[in-house]
Amino acid sequence: MAQKPLILAVETSSRIGSVAIAIGERILAEAAFSGPMRHSAELFPAIRSLLDRFSRKPREIEHIYISVGPGSFTGIRIAVTTAKAMNLANAAKIVAVDTLDVIAANATDLATDASSHQPRPSEGRDEPRTTSPERIAAVLDAKRGQFFIAVYQRTSPAPPRGRTSDRRRATSPAPPRGGTSDGIWKKVFPDSLMTAPQFLDQFACKQKPVWLLGDGLVYYKDKFKADGIRFLDEQYWSPRAAKVHLLGWKMSLKGQFADPLTLQPAYLRCPDVKIKPR
Fold first, then answer.
1. Which residues contact 78 (CB under 8 A, 6 or more apart)?
2. Is omega for the bond preceding 70 within 30 degrees of 0, making it cis?
3. SS3 for 8?
4. Is 19:56 a contact under the CB 8 Å cutoff?
5. If we measure between CA atoms, which residue out of 227, 225, 222 comes closest to residue 209?
6. Are domains 6-98+238-253 and 100-236 of this chain identical in fold?
7. Domain spanning 6-98+238-253: CATH superfamily
8. Rounded Cα gap, residues 10 and 65, in angstroms
9. CA distance 210 to 212
10. Which among 52, 58, 49 is positioned nearest to 87, based on CA atoms?
């Protein structure tokens, strides 16, 4: 039996960055950065710290999984550059994971635990309780009053009580990037750039509520308040390196590796370029 690869997972596409190392499907450790937008300052020290913790060297990393966007232009570029450098240095194979899929994968934790507790809205008001959301939407701030948004539909029931969640084990089958985010959620509305009113006009429905999560809600949650809209607890909002690994590992099993020569950030729109006056 072939030895499973040492994997580095990197999430720098949103406010709070993180890294994780794993052997095959098994996460060894995950570390979040100390504060928002600390990607460039803390990425390599965090990687070094995790590798040292398990007496590993950078040259031993065989796979690198990155969150490739949409999201922070600078953060995505950092991840893509790191992946390309590691491929050049050690021929590490790259998997590029959609950032909104990574956020949606947080709801897998909620779904796997649904038989033991109810998802609670992050609002204090009374809202209808549900055993588990049927629709979710991942939301990231795209600036200029717009948001990166994708919508997902539940494809399978929550596992029975007592089954180990993917926070401890990640072994479900692999979906392609941009399609199904994991074995529970299927992407039914692709990564899009839209305003909050545009989203509400298309998806707010009292009979079929959609639950929102993602860092785009940190400052703009009020823009999405409407009948038929619910909010998952803030613990599910941020993309995490552990979920990059979860999705990346399943993609790697299908041979869905990125070409380092053509790999580009998934911006959805061009970044602002401002030329400073001389």
1. 12, 39, 40, 43
2. yes
3. strand
4. no
5. 227
6. yes
7. ATPase, nucleotide binding domain (3.30.420.40)
8. 6
9. 6
10. 58
- DSSP state letter for 132: S
Strands in 18-23's sheet, in edge-to-edge order, are: 26-32, 18-23, 6-11, 63-67, 93-97
Nearest alpha-carbon partner for 211 in 145, 120, 277: 120
> Under CATH, which number does the domain 100-236 receive?
3.30.420.40
Three-class secondary structure of residue 248 per DSSP? helix
Domain coordinates in residue numbering, the chain: 6-98+238-253, 100-236
- Please give the pLDDT value at position 220: 97
- Computed on alpha carbons and rounded to an integer, the radius of gyration of the chain in Å comes to 18
**Token pair belonging to 241:** 């390196």
User: For the chain, where are the E strands, in sequence order?
Assistant: 6-11, 18-23, 26-32, 63-67, 93-97, 135-143, 146-154, 185-194, 210-213, 229-231
Amino acid at 91: A
Contacts of 57 (CB under 8 A, 6+ apart): 51
Question: What CA–CA distance (Å, rounded) separates 133 from 210?
Answer: 7
For residue 74, the one-letter residue type is T
User: Which pLDDT value is given to residue 183?
Assistant: 62
pLDDT value of position 272:
52
Cα separation, 270 vs 266, in Å, equals 10
Mean pLDDT by 10 residues, the chain (278 residues): 89 95 97 92 96 96 97 95 96 97 90 49 46 89 95 74 41 38 82 97 94 96 97 95 97 97 87 52
